């Protein structure tokens, strides 16, 4: 049975596919081929690199994909698509040819609610140093990142975070005006 996967797509470094916009468009084609039917895609947005000062601006978007794959299978496919675009993981939060994040997959919570909540509450300094050794789902930073939420709100404002119970629209409303102002449609 298909579940709806919310996927964040970003690029701030050229790849063999072209500039960041071409790389994001190519990723959408590969997501459709490898993961499932794309049912919605947001507009493309220009956003500052995260954390601030860590590189050039990003092109970001979000997609909803109907997939029968498990969360681990979706993540593995996303990593293969990133690798095909030349993605390397040498510097945490460095420039990226392609960054694909599985944000939400239906009501799936992995590995469990307690672990998920612990990663959600991780202070920024620890986030810079620590990366999970397994899939944490929903993405533990979704509620904090306007560059993810604003594109996702265009296509899934009523989607509910399976741990917090907040909708994507409610999470966007909790962002600061200053953060929202930095995220501009292309």
Structure in words:
The protein is an alpha+beta fold. It has one domain: 7,8-Dihydro-6-hydroxymethylpterin-pyrophosphokinase HPPK (Alpha-Beta Plaits). The chain contains 7 helices and 6 strands; from the N terminus they run E-H-E-E-E-H-E-H-H-H-H-H-E. Strands 1, 2, 3, 4, 5 and 6 form a 6-stranded antiparallel beta sheet that branches. Helix 1 packs antiparallel against helix 2 (71-84). Its EC number is 2.7.6.3. Pathway: Cofactor biosynthesis; tetrahydrofolate biosynthesis; 2-amino-4-hydroxy-6-hydroxymethyl-7,8-dihydropteridine diphosphate from 7,8-dihydroneopterin triphosphate: step 4/4. Catalyzes the transfer of pyrophosphate from adenosine triphosphate (ATP) to 6-hydroxymethyl-7,8-dihydropterin, an enzymatic step in folate biosynthesis pathway. It is an enzyme of class 2 (transferase).
Name the features.
six-stranded antiparallel sheet, Alpha-Beta Plaits, 186 residues, 6 strands, alpha+beta
Question: What's the structural blueprint in terms of helices and strands?
Answer:
Blueprint: E1 3-11, H1 20-34, E2 37-41, E3 45-47, E4 58-67, H2 71-84, E5 99-105, H3 113-120, H4 124-129, H5 146-155, H6 168-173, H7 177-181, E6 184-185
Antiparallel strand pairs: 1-4, 1-5, 2-4, 3-4, 3-6
Helix pairs in contact: 1-2
Corresponding CATH architecture: 2-Layer Sandwich
Gap between N and C termini, in Å?
35 Å
The CATH class designation is: Alpha Beta
* Major β-sheet annotation: 6 strands, antiparallel
Report the CATH superfamily: 7,8-Dihydro-6-hydroxymethylpterin-pyrophosphokinase HPPK
What is the average of the pLDDT values? 91
What is the count of DSSP helices, taking H or I runs of 4+ residues? 7
Structural class: alpha+beta
% residues in beta strands:
15-25%
Looking at the structure, the CATH topology is Alpha-Beta Plaits
How do the helices and strands follow one another from N- to C-terminus?
EHEEEHEHHHHHE
Provide the low-confidence segments as ranges.
none
Please bin the fraction of helical residues. Answer: 25-40%
How many β-strand runs? 6
Shape: globular
User: What is Rg?
Assistant: 15 Å
């Amino acid at each position: 049975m298909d579940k709806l996967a919310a996927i964040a797509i970003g690029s701030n470094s050229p790849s063999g596919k072209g500039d960041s916009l071409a790389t994001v468009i190519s990723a959408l084609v590969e997501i459709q081929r490898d993961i499932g039917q794309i049912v919605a895609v947001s507009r493309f947005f220009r956003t500052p690199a995260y954390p601030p000062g860590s590189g050039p601006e990003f092109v970001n978007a979000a997609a909803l994909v109907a997939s029968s794959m498990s969360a681990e299978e979706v993540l593995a496919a996303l990593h293969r698509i990133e690798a095909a675009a030349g993605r390397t993981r040498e510097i945490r939060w460095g420039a990226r040819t392609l960054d694909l994040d599985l944000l939400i997959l239906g009501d799936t919570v992995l590995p469990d609610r307690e672990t998920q909540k612990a990663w959600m509450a991780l202070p920024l300094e620890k986030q810079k140093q620590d990366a999970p050794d397994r899939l944490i789902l929903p993405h533990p930073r979704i509620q904090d990142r306007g560059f993810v939420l604003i594109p996702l709100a265009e296509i899934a404002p009523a989607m509910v975070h399976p741990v917090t119970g907040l909708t994507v629209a409610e999470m966007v409303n909790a962002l600061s005006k200053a953060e929202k102002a930095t995220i501009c449609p292309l």
